[in-house]
Amino acid sequence: MIKFVTSNRNKFQEVKEMMEANKIDIDWIELQYEEIQADSTGEISRDSCTKIARKVDGKFFLEDTGLFIDPLNGFPGPYSSYVQKTIGNKGILRLLHNNGRDATFLTVVSYWDGAGIIQFSGELRGKISYTERGSNGFGYDPIFIPEGYEKSLAEMTIPEKNAISHRSIAVQKFIDHLKKENR
Ligand code: ITT
Ligand code: NA
């Protein structure tokens, strides 16, 4: 049994499907904690993990994700949560004009194994769309078109998104680690 600390039910659902496919039981832990504001997603994730290790018994993991838009010099990046709540996808579309639309999603999983923190990361390259498309997924999914695809992430099913996503790449590395740990 592994505990996933997150406030986001969509994240939990995506990760749960991957864990189940690997026969790993996963438990959803929702608890409040202050997230630091820092430049790096890895640093934010590590800090949250340290704080939660004082509150949660045993092994657990959490993850932090950011959307980094090239023509905006990586914005919103570590501010992705705040930006999604304030200007949202429509606000992002308004900020982008004709200076390119390349973007990257980055997920960092932080795993507290009882002794220390181990991190696993995953990235997905793509482009910001011109309009919001699709109603699956969450957050920035309606405006993100993965490289090599025509559909936005919000036009994909969870298995389709999990086949390519930033989160699934990080979580797969984590699953591989858990399998080694339990050998
Ligand atoms: P936690 O409790 O797990 O931190 P959160 O929703 O606050 O959940 P993040 O801070 O990691 O998650 O996410 C930053 C923002 O990016 C937030 O607005 C999310 O909705 C969005 N986001 C994260 N993963 C995404 C994904 O796979 N597709 C689209 N948007 C995503
Ligand atoms: Na977070």
What does this molecule look like?
The structure is a single chain. The chain is α/β, with parallel strands linked by helices and 183 residues long. It has a single domain (2-181), classed as Maf protein. 34% of the residues lie in helices and 25% in strands. It has helices at 9-21, 41-53, 80-86, 88-95, 158-162, 166-181; strands at residues 2-5, 26-29, 60-69, 76-77, 102-112, 117-128, 144-146. Strands 1, 2, 3, 4, 5, 6 and 7 form a seven-stranded mixed β-sheet that branches. The chain is globular. It comes from Oxyplasma meridianum. Its EC number is 3.6.1.66.
Which descriptors apply to this entry?
183 residues, 7-stranded mixed sheet, binds sodium ion, alpha/beta, binds inosine 5'-triphosphate
Strand content of the residues, in percent? 25-35%
Estimated structural class: alpha/beta
Chain oligomer state: single chain
Q: Count the helices. How many? A: 6
What is the share of helical residues? 25-40%
The domain count comes to 1
The strand count comes to 7
Mean pLDDT: 96
Query: Which residue ranges are poorly predicted, with pLDDT under 50 across at least 5 consecutive positions?
Result: none
CATH architecture: Alpha-Beta Complex
Rg result:
16 Å
CATH topology: Maf protein
Bound ligands, named by name, code or SMILES: inosine 5'-triphosphate, sodium ion
**H/E topology pattern:** EHEHEEHHEEEHH
Q: Which descriptor suits the 3D outline?
A: globular
User: Terminal Cα separation, in Å?
Assistant: 15 Å
CATH class group:
Alpha Beta
